[in-house]
Amino acid sequence: MSRLSFFFKRLVRMDWKAMWKTTGILKERSGKSRIWLLCDMLRCAVKYNAGYVDYKIAQFYRLNDEQKKTQITRGLSNTIVRRMNDKSYWYLFDDKATFNNLFKDEVARDWIKVTKDTDLEEWKAFLSRNDDLFWKPLEGSSGVGIARYEKEYWLGREEEFLKELVDKEVGILEERVIQHPRMMEMSPSSVNTIRIATLLGDKKQGIVYAFLRIGNGKVMDNVDQGGMAARVDLATGTLLTVGADKQGNTFTEHPITGTPIIGFKIPFFQEACDMCLKAAQKVPQMRFVAWDVAITEKGPVFIEGNSFPSHAVPQFAAHYPDGIGIMREFREFIDI
Fold it and tell me: The pTM is what?
């Protein structure tokens, strides 16, 4: 899709109210007028395929043209995904039950698909061997629809619990992942997952980036649910940057636990990378996948794989204080 066609497509679907609100926030942050910001947003939309969310999280208003060229914006991210990933294989990642079956060794936990046809005896047996479970819609992203249930909720009313979930929508119920004690020190309220992106590029194959997603008091670490992220050094598994959230807030230490973020070392990081690289070869038609990996006391496990990796976290301005974005990493793998 050309820059111009992408621009007009986004223009038609634009949430003008949200964009106006965003310019108000950026006016306060940047000290620039709303008219200047709107004009610069328009120019960046045409020239760099940058939407107003890209503009906000990458802080385009502080960048010169050479720096802006290094950002992976939404339009460019969409182009990369569609070029690298055969859409007929997306379902292997988008359907959570299919993903769990395909990568059962890496998922390594108990789970059951919940539909109107779920066998009652199988259901009761599943509940009897678990005390703490997470419900996930079969398809979806950004943590929407995820809920936690503990044994006290369903004990003695297993059939009623099944009906409740079936009435919601088709989904899966999974054994809760217990994260490594070191990861618990960062944030115990959520499983803090590593987003590891593998790229089977034309120039080389490997990991293009990794970020630790950190919960901030909620049951999920997703940045769309109030979480934050910090960039991981691929060589050492150590956090290189402050934590940053989607609103532009930055943290040198976790605001609840007080754990320092920069320099935090992720246990089993090399094993997590090796697991992702091996898994990437299983479906070679999907050349660009973002894997969400949890670290347990026994090692890494998959939470899920993303067929359409989010472009948001790799753009956070706080992760690139020199204004040079992640484009250079991608260019080691593919021509952009």
Answer: 0.91
The SS3 call for residue 175 is strand
Backbone angles phi, psi at 79, to 5 degrees: -65, -45
CATH match for 110-175 among 3.30.1490.20, 3.30.559.30, 3.40.50.720, 3.30.750.24: 3.30.1490.20
SS3 content of the chain, % helix, strand, coil (to 5): 40, 20, 40
Provide the token pair at 186: 């960062």
Q: Which of 327, 318, 146 is nearest to 246 (CA)?
A: 318
> Could you read off the pLDDT of 81-95 as tens digits, one per residue?
999 999 999 999 999
Q: What is the CA radius of gyration of the chain?
A: 21
Residue type present at position 52: Y
Residues, the chain? 336
* Tokens describing residue 105: 């060794």
Token pair, residue 98, equals 């299919």
How remote is the C-alpha of 146 from its chain's centroid? 14
Q: Are 295 and 183 in contact (CB under 8 A)?
A: yes
Decide: helix, strand or coil at residue 186: helix
Closest CA to 140 of 220, 75, 212: 220
In CATH, what is the architecture of 87-93+180-331? Answer: 2-Layer Sandwich (3.30)
Task: Name the CA dihedral angle for 40, 46, 47, 51, rounded to a multiple of 10 degrees.
Answer: 70
Domain ranges of the chain: 3-66, 87-93+180-331, 110-175
Q: How many angstroms separate the first and last alpha carbons of the chain? A: 14
Instruction: Note whether 197 and 209 are within 8 A (CB).
Output: yes
The residue type of 323 is G
pLDDT tens digits for 163-202?
A: 999 998 889 999 999 999 999 999 998 999 999 999 999 9
